Amino acid sequence: MRIGELSRRTGVNAHQLRYYEAQGLLEADRAANGYREYNENALLKVKQIRHLLGAGLSSEDIAYLLPCATGETPELPGCSELLTAMRSRLQRLDDQMTRLAQSRNALAVYIEAAEHAGNESYPPFELSAS
Fold this sequence. Notes:
This protein is mainly α.
């Protein structure tokens, strides 16, 4: 099938499919006219890629995990290399969430102080150093 059909059948635009191919996540043969030709397995691969991207994995992580993936969701075997890669990504997400929570709290303090500026009964503005 050509890229347009794969795009229609998966709901993923052609630009993203070309990106997946450039990242080594998806393979296409070339017809004599130069058009990309995908086999039926590409449908499953695209669905797997979308699920893994939705889990916050990078295309580099997915390239590492995809050869071991089975099923649409996909399922990943519990080998140590895969678990290490996924735990590393989970730790990066946890770290990002911590930084975002700190930024959110600091911003809330600024907003609260700005809303109460000039109000003599309100305690002085203090931003914690966390």
